[in-house]
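Office hours follow-up: a student asked to see two folded examples consecutively, so here they are.
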Amino acid sequence: MSIKLVYLASPYSVYKGGREEAFKLACEKAAEIMSMGYAVFCPIAHSHSVEKYGMDGAIQNGDWWLEQDFAVLRRCDELWVYMMPGWEKSYGVGKEIELAKSRGIPIEYFYFDYKTKTY
């Protein structure tokens, strides 16, 4: 039995609550999806901590991170877009959707509850 690998896209730098809150919400959503029986790659959860602790906070540009993330997205079974505030303005989320569409990777969209900050 093979477990599906889901790529969880969400906004980061354009999220109105800031990067730390975007990181926290992405981690919570990734954990929730994992508890549903999926394997998850969440670039915000992965990249935020690597940049903050592994690169001494040296902020890399978005294209640099997309190169890292796309190497994983190309291998994923599905792209799930977490529609947090700002997702439609996010350069990275837009590029992730473009790549998934070009490769025929199925895309799912999940709404964000503005009041409770949850799906």
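And the second, which I mentioned at the end of office hours:
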Amino acid sequence: MEMTWAERMEVEYTRKGVQEGLRQGVAALHQVVLRLLAQRFGAVPEPVRAKVEAIDSTDVLSDLAGKVLEVKSIDEMGL
């Protein structure tokens, strides 16, 4: 059965809302990881900051946040 115009618009707006929510979640996780790095190791070098900000996976960023608590240096982060 074909969707009505209203149904298509609802699907489209829902998709855009989900994408925006994910984008905001990734941006928030960027800030969390960078803040944790700064609190643990001091100033975050720009190359490390750029690599963190280039990550677009919430799973990878969450893993990095946990890893900050396990490593002894920022170099051990593998960034």
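Two things to take away from it. The chain has one domain: 5-77. Residues 5-41 form the longest helix (37 residues).
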